[in-house]
From TrEMBL:
Record-annotated EAL domain positions: 23-276
Organism encoding this protein: Pontibacillus marinus BH030004 = DSM 16465
Parent sequence residues shown: 463 to 740 of 740
Name of this protein: Diguanylate cyclase
Amino acid sequence: AKSQGKNRYVVYTSELLEDMMEEYSLEADLRKAMDHEEFVLHYQPQFNNATGELIGFEALIRWQHPTLGLLSPAKFIKLAEKNGLITQIGEWVINEACSQNKKWQDAGMEPVKIAVNLSTQQFLTRDLVKFIERVLKRTELDPQYLVVEITEYMAMEYDYSLSVLEQLKALGICISIDDFGTGYSSLNYLKDFPIDYIKIDKSFVNEIMNDHNDAVIVKAIITLAHNLNLQVIAEGVETADQLNFLKEYLCDVTQGYFFSKPLPAQEIEQKYLAWQSN
Ligand code: C2E
Ligand code: CA
Ligand code: CA
Ligand code: CA
């Protein structure tokens, strides 16, 4: 047992070293990724549960790495948060999402909303509001078609967050609380923050058909949100049963693999965008 323990230790340290090396080279690559235009946005459609209508997309970043292939955000967002690159990456995301959305509208597509994820660091950046205002002005996108997704962590800096959100709201954009119910914050902010949507995290949606507690939580979130005049988006919906459950309890919007994975812009155009009818 002793020698096994020792072996395990050796394995552990070499793995650790490997992880560190990997992170080091990934970090160097990440610094170049912006200039080399290696980031792309994929878009996942969201549908109105009552009408079946497409209401918009969530923009989700991917990194087309020169040798490792297409990397999911799980592979690099934490690293980008650690070394501060996240602000620059996040600005690219806002800019790209707004430009793309405006391009679609200019081409005569039925207008839809695009939601972008804001990292905590980016949210706390002093000139976030100014930046978004500039992007909206430059792209000429009508602000109602931009949604920012923030997490409950951002409610920790209560007064600061409230003032940022009020400024964002004044620009005319929509605000969504992402991963609702998974953070550590109190529910206080729900009564003060100018929020439009609550997104039920997929960890709750996952088990609604099998776990009574998850079902109860989801129902309670929907009731709570509706009583506060907020709309509810369920993410991670993978089955018809889950969709029917959510419809039955009047969840407003659905997003998930049941309808579609996040897709590149070109595929979105082919599969989901409709020409405006007039
Ligand atoms: P999130 O904001 O909670 O996004 C939902 C994640 O669930 C996405 O993973 C999406 O592809 C995935 N998903 C959607 N439908 C289903 C489903 O039916 N089943 C399952 N199992 N998963 C589903 P993705 O794209 O890998 O993104 C992971 C996380 O990375 C996001 O979680 C978000 O926190 C972060 N992220 C993505 N794009 C950005 C970005 O541009 N900026 C920042 N700061 N974070 C981002
Ligand atoms: Ca999100
Ligand atoms: Ca998230
Ligand atoms: Ca989530």
